[in-house]
Design goal:
Elements (H helix, E strand, L loop, with lengths): L13 H15 L3 H14 L4 H13 L3 H14 L4 H13 L3 H14 L4 H13 L3 H12 L6 H13 L3 H14 L4 H9 L15 H15 L5 H4 L19 H18 L16 E7 L6 H13 L5 E7 L6 H9 L2 E3 L5 H10 L4 E4 L6 H7 L6 E5 L13 E5 L14 E5 L27 E3 L10 H13 L3 E5 L4 H17 L8 E4 L4 H10 L2 E3 L8 H8 L4 E4 L8 H8 L6 E2 L2 H13 L1 H14 L8 H14 L8 E2 L2
Parallel strand pairs: 1-2, 1-4, 2-3, 4-5, 5-6, 6-7, 8-9, 8-11, 9-10, 11-12, 12-13
Antiparallel strand pairs: 7-14
Helix pairs in contact: 1-2, 2-3, 3-4, 4-5, 5-6, 5-7, 6-7, 7-8, 8-9, 9-10, 10-11, 11-12, 12-14, 19-24, 24-25
């Protein structure tokens, strides 16, 4: 918030001005209670004295009495409708009170008065991104960067926004500008390395060399965080992670291990003093497990990895403590809370999360994923329990020396799977999870009627799953079928979807095909609407290299044939694992040409497609409500809590 820098202003009588000066002196001296009392007395005597109301608002804010502060800022804005500062300050308080739309409206009013007001531009850009209007957020941020001077923090946050939307060159420039203003800006330096991994590939762009560039940048980053900078490194760790490395079909164990070593080193240098970590559990007691995640709500990680375990775990064997590091809450959050011996949530800094985890004295800390949530990754970079485990919510090695075991599934892992992990691999039976059908209500899909009489093919992967090698396969399918529609969905980062749409359109035109006849990008659908689309579709095409789990399970629930191509790594074998589990191996292609042929036959032969759909409906129960992984996970947790290496676990060479 921008604070007025004077004492008494306007046309206030001298006695009022003197009283305000005295109250502000108490405020500056740290006597907040006395200052608030003086300000309230002034406002009571002179309700239109806006300077007193503004000072009262800042004092209330300092006391964390946010709702009362917002009331005072609203009065200041009413008294001074021409003041951009008044509206901007009001917006900041409304945002803090979770009144998101009202906050944005206040910032918009501030910018209508002063289009160059930096705090309103910055705050509204951040808000627009949060509210799912990234293109408007980018426009605001670009306007802000045209103003001078701007601090390093502004350029850093601009870079983060540009990076999230796949604007790689703009992001790199913004991080460079941040470092030009503050050469020790560790988070900007960190993001320069992360940004070497593109989020999606547009026309004339290729994944070739991206992994090597990231490895080189990572080495430079490790050297930059030398002994003189280690202490400040913790604030940079995992500000964003090499999430997009997993979408390259290469073995990432070596670069992720180098990354993990850097994270652990920086967190060790700046973390709170470690308590003595026990080496063995209390004999006879249930295993105490701290489950740490930002995704205890209706999210793919929760649905696939943790929901069934939370609902089905034997509480006589496992005492589960939930640490919800995220901000989103819904009915699924309530389910997690109900299944836990204790539940920790709400805003906390890192030290507070560490203290909360240590307070339950866990035998095991379990992370459903490492690679997506920054807080979880920072915590995972420290030793907080005798045994620490990561599950396959992000299905690649964490690379962290502080993580002992990687939980995967027998249905996902290739024969050499253990060599892909720094952790010791534990492959739970079958699909490694307890999964139940979602059974959503009916809803009409948005933006598509499906009545044009041609086969339509669901392509539901996120943009970063579609690398250029997909284009040739789609073209081959289109050539074989003639008229058909590939249905994609616009991502929460719409510029990423635009990139791959433009790339695919160019590839189709070069192949002599009109992309308008084949490629459709639909709005994001509600779950009921998405299910209705799948019930009417002909084929679901799984992505290559990084497969889909939740969407493949949803397609199976709808009786929609899923075509998968088994990958080299577990992350490329999720859908094929489902298909093999239910005995539908015929839908698992071993080569790209088989992938094309399987999809074409399903679309062209209605009798074959109907028969396949019937077999899916008959067999899908084999993938549902499987208690074997839950019991195996309980066995595993008990074994490591008592100091035994679990039977059958394998550590990579």
């Amino acid at each position: 918030m921008a604070r007025h820098n004077g004492c008494a202003m306007g046309n206030a009588p001298l006695t009022q001005a003197s009283a305000l000066e005295a109250a502000q002196a108490r405020h500056r001296a740290g006597d907040l209670a006395g200052a608030v009392s003086d300000y309230e007395a002034l406002v009571g005597l002179a309700p239109d004295y806006w300077e007193a109301r503004e000072s009262l608002a800042f004092a209330l804010y300092a006391q964390q009495r946010f709702a009362e502060a917002a009331e005072q800022f609203a009065e200041v804005a009413r008294l001074r409708p021409e003041s951009a500062a008044a509206h901007s300050n009001l917006g900041a308080l409304l945002w803090q009170l979770d009144r998101r739309g009202d906050a944005l409206a206040a910032w918009d009013r501030a910018l209508a008065i002063d289009p160059h007001r930096q705090d309103a531009l910055f705050n509204s850009a951040q808000a627009l991104g949060y509210l799912g209007r990234p293109l408007d957020a980018i426009d605001r941020m670009r306007s802000l960067l045209l103003l001078r001077p701007a601090p390093a923090s502004t350029y850093f946050h601009a870079g983060m926004l540009f990076h999230s939307q796949g604007l790689r060159e703009e992001a790199l420039q913004a991080f460079a500008d941040a470092l030009a203003r503050d050469s020790d800006h560790g988070r900007a330096r960190w993001m320069q390395a992360i940004t070497e991994l593109p989020l999606a590939y547009g026309p004339h762009e290729s994944p070739e060399g991206a992994v090597d560039r990231f490895a080189t940048a990572l080495q430079r980053l490790d050297e930059w965080f030398d002994a003189s900078r280690e202490a400040q490194g913790a604030s940079a760790v995992a500000v964003r992670q090499p999430f997009y490395l997993a979408f390259h079909e290469v073995d990432v164990r070596d670069p992720m291990s180098r990354y993990g070593d850097l994270c652990a080193r920086l967190m060790r240098s700046a973390s709170p003093p470690a308590a003595q970590v026990r080496t063995r559990s209390r004999v006879g007691a249930p295993v105490s497990v701290a489950v740490v995640s930002a995704y205890f709500y209706d999210h793919s990680v929760w649905t696939a990895v943790m929901r069934g375990f939370c609902a089905q775990v034997d509480r006589g064997r496992v005492r589960m403590h939930v640490f919800h590091t995220g901000t989103q809450h819904d009915a699924e959050t309530d389910l997690a809370r109900a299944s836990a011996a204790s539940f920790f949530g709400g805003p906390r800094d890192l030290d507070q999360w560490v203290a909360a985890i240590r307070s339950v004295d866990p035998d095991v800390v379990l992370y459903p994923e490492i690679g997506m949530d920054a807080t979880s990754a920072r915590l995972a970079s420290m030793r907080l329990a005798p045994s620490q485990v990561v599950a396959w919510g992000h299905p690649q090695t964490s690379g962290l020396p502080t993580i002992d075991y990687f939980l995967s599934a027998q249905g996902f892992e290739p024969p050499d799977g253990a060599s892909h992990y720094r952790e010791r691999l534990v492959a739970l039976p079958n699909l490694g999870c307890y999964y139940d059908e979602l059974r959503p209500d009916f809803a009409v899909p948005e933006g598509f009627s499906g009545n044009d009489g041609v086969p339509y093919i669901i392509c539901a992967g996120t943009p970063y799953k579609y690398t250029p090698r997909h284009d040739a396969l789609l073209i081959d399918i289109a050539r074989e079928l003639g008229a058909c529609r590939f249905l994609f969905f616009i991502d929460v980062a719409p510029l990423l979807s635009r990139k791959i749409e433009e790339r695919m359109a160019l590839a189709f035109r070069r192949a002599g095909l009109d992309p308008r006849d084949h490629i459709r990008f639909l709005p994001r659908q509600s779950r009921p609407a998405f299910f209705e689309l799948m019930r009417g579709a002909d084929v679901y095409l799984d992505t290559l290299g990084f497969s889909g789990f939740n969407t493949a399970m949803q397609a199976i629930e709808c009786g929609l044939p899923v075509v998968a191509c088994e990958g080299r790594f577990a992350r490329g074998r999720l859908a094929s694992g489902i298909l093999r589990t239910i005995g539908m191996d015929e839908l698992v292609a071993s080569t790209p040409s088989d992938y094309v042929g399987t999809a074409v036959r399903l679309c062209a032969d209605i009798g074959h497609r109907t028969a396949v759909g019937s077999r899916i409906a008959q067999r899908r129960g084999a993938a549902l409500r499987d208690l074997a992984p839950v019991r195996a996970l309980e066995d595993f947790l008990e074994s490591i809590a008592t100091g035994h290496t679990p039977e059958g676990s394998r550590r990579g060479a």
